[in-house]
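in:
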């Protein structure tokens, strides 16, 4: 498996935004599918040893993806992504929030707005991700929860899918 793929992770405290630029050794259509189809997301979205489990997904503007991060002891942390814009194989945007198993948003946890751009880079694909938070304290809370480590681990899981 290639380990020299681009992975830039930066935090902009002035705009309360996380920016991730990540390269994958796969075609744009394959990378798009891995980010937009629940059966593929369930294989890599959670950092090991956790697993993602989709409850429902309707990938369209106004639709949503509701899923649980399931821990090794069976513990569940639910989240919901509400899709706000989709340009096939190029870009999609969504609002992401923690929720309960019925989809009721947990206001005590930070939510974020995701913007993902998919571009071809030779035989590879680069995904530019911008994750905006309402304020600096929300951004800092997500970082303290281990977002960088968890997201990096999940990306490596996606690399393994493309390698196999």
């Amino acid at each position: 498996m290639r380990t020299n793929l681009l992975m830039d992770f930066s935090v902009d405290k002035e705009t309360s935004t996380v920016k991730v630029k990540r390269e994958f050794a796969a075609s744009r259509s394959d990378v798009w599918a891995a980010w937009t189809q629940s059966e593929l997301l369930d294989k890599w979205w959670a950092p090991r040893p956790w697993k993602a489990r989709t409850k429902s997904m309707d990938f369209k503007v106004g639709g949503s993806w509701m899923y649980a991060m399931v821990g090794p002891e069976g513990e569940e942390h639910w989240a919901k992504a509400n899709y706000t814009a989709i340009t096939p194989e190029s870009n999609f945007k969504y609002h992401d929030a923690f929720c309960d198993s019925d989809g009721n948003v947990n206001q005590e946890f930070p939510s974020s707005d995701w913007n993902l751009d998919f571009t071809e880079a030779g035989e590879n694909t680069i995904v530019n991700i911008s994750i905006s938070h309402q304020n600096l304290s929300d951004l800092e809370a997500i970082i303290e929860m281990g977002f960088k480590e968890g997201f990096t681990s999940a990306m490596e899981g996606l690399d393994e899918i493309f390698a196999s």
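note: The chain has one domain: 7-163.
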